[in-house]
Design a protein that fits this description.
The structure is a single chain. The protein has 17 helices and 20 strands. The protein is of the alpha+beta class. Helix 1 runs parallel beside helix 10, helix 10 packs antiparallel against helix 12 and helix 15 packs antiparallel against helix 16. The mean pLDDT is 91.
Length: 432
């Protein structure tokens, strides 16, 4: 087997495959390593794939080539209690025109397709291949050691795109030895089989239109939220919960997910569906403050390995950031090959290009959001406040009505406290 390459990419997720595709199209000899039996085998995903502008440059009709499920035309935010829910819906015809703003996808299908495109461009893909260590010479990364047979692969530069726990970045000394649990979340998902016709009717969709729904107040007091997304002939339903908050409770993630599925509002949507699988995945939620060193001598870090994830409560962005970072990492490697400089200084253009792109700009914009989302009232008191207010507004029982202002102030004082309300509004305004 060949053991020397122009570049080694570890991890065949969106970041790694995008990097390998870009490098191969530039004529570099690149190897893409994947620990699963195939790209996407070990990836759990229950969300929305936002526009991948970096890939649209390679595939002008990306939405016709990639294995997508549905394009999102309806977005909803739901405040939920045990007995009630209040929905805010956004539906626009603009999202029903190309280029679509977002899609639901199956990660095993999508990741495999993207890796195959990299192979078509000339990349070498090695699956069932786990990196055991990095090779250091004079402090510079010059390759990786493989677990399966103790062999080594060498290259002047390595791109670590091996996920949130990035063993490669850790071995290269670019990230802290231990994670802060407050920076991490765990996502658990149930995939529910349901005929396309039933999904279309239940969500008011036609053709390949899709819907996404974020929910607050469904995690039994644990900091976090729920999601419900329509695939072509299945539903992705799950929870994303802060690891530090989850560890303080008595229920497991799957206990909470089962409770969520049994809530009356959700049970109605799932009626007639068949559970296909459960899955779980760690999510980097620390935002800008969690981003590790991105560049070292002979190494770059991209995607989830670089904690490139934005969580605002309204949107969860990850794959689009990962893909963009993979393409930019490849551009930095191409420039390094042209200058024959693979030192930290020679690869530093990667960080600069990320800062000029929307990736680090948006992460920096929402840098206060992770702290705001650690407010327990968001997940308990505010759903109760919103649903309680709507119940009062719509209830007709013969008692005199209050003015809307008086009703809101009274309810806010009872449920949250006016000082807390002012503080929370200010924190939310600064964060978002």
């Amino acid at each position: 087997m060949k053991t020397t390459f122009d570049a080694i990419v570890v991890g065949a997720g969106p970041a790694g495959s995008s990097a390998a595709l870009t490098l191969a199209r530039a004529g570099l000899d690149v190897v893409l390593l994947e620990r699963g039996a195939f790209p996407g085998e070990k990836n759990m995903f229950g969300g929305v794939l936002h526009r991948l502008t970096a890939l649209e440059e390679v595939f002008p009709d990306f939405w016709n080539q990639a294995p997508l499920e549905r394009h999102i035309v309806k977005k909803s935010l739901t405040f939920m209690t045990g007995e009630a829910s209040f929905n805010v819906n956004f539906d626009t015809a603009a999202s029903d025109r190309t280029p679509y703003n977002g899609y639901t996808v199956s990660r095993p299908k999508f990741d495999r397709w993207l890796a195959e495109e990299a192979v078509k461009a000339g990349a070498t893909l090695l699956c069932s291949t786990t990196v055991d260590d990095v090779i250091l010479e004079s402090g510079k990364v010059v390759g990786v050691k493989l677990l399966r047979d103790g062999s080594s692969l060498r290259a002047p530069v390595v791109i670590a795109a091996d996920g949130v726990l990035s063993f490669v970045a850790k071995k290269a000394g670019l990230r802290r030895p231990k994670f802060d649990p407050s920076h991490m979340a765990v996502g658990v998902k149930a995939l529910i089989d349901m005929p396309k016709e039933v999904i279309d009717d239940r969500f008011g969709l036609v053709r390949d239109q899709g819907a996404s729904n974020e929910l607050v107040g469904c995690t039994s007091g644990v900091r976090g939220g729920g999601f419900l997304y329509t695939n072509y002939d299945s539903l992705s339903l799950g929870l994303v919960m802060h690891l530090s908050s989850l560890s303080q409770g008595e229920k497991t993630p799957y206990d909470l997910l089962n409770d969520f599925m049994e809530q009356p509002q959700i049970a109605k949507v799932l009626r007639g569906g068949r559970l296909l699988e459960y899955s779980a995945h760690l999510v980097p939620e620390g935002g800008y403050g969690m981003v590790p060193e991105l560049v070292g001598d002979g190494i770059l870090v991209a995607g989830d390995a670089a904690a490139l994830c934005i969580v605002t409560g309204l949107n969860l962005e990850g794959i689009n950031l990962a893909t963009q970072s993979g393409v930019i990492a490849a551009q930095a490697v191409i420039a390094a090959h042209q200058s024959r400089n693979f030192s930290k200084a020679g690869l530093a253009v990667y960080r600069r290009l990320l800062e000029e792109s929307y990736v680090l700009r948006d992460l920096n914009l929402y840098r206060r959001t992770p702290h705001m989302l650690h407010n327990d009232r968001i997940y308990t008191k505010y759903p109760e406040l919103v649903c309680g207010l709507m119940d009062e507004i719509y209830r007709i029982d013969g008692t005199p009505k209050e003015t809307m202002t008086r009703m809101v102030l009274r309810a806010a004082k009872e449920k949250i406290g006016l000082k807390n309300l002012v503080a929370d509004v200010y924190a939310g305004w600064r964060a978002l």
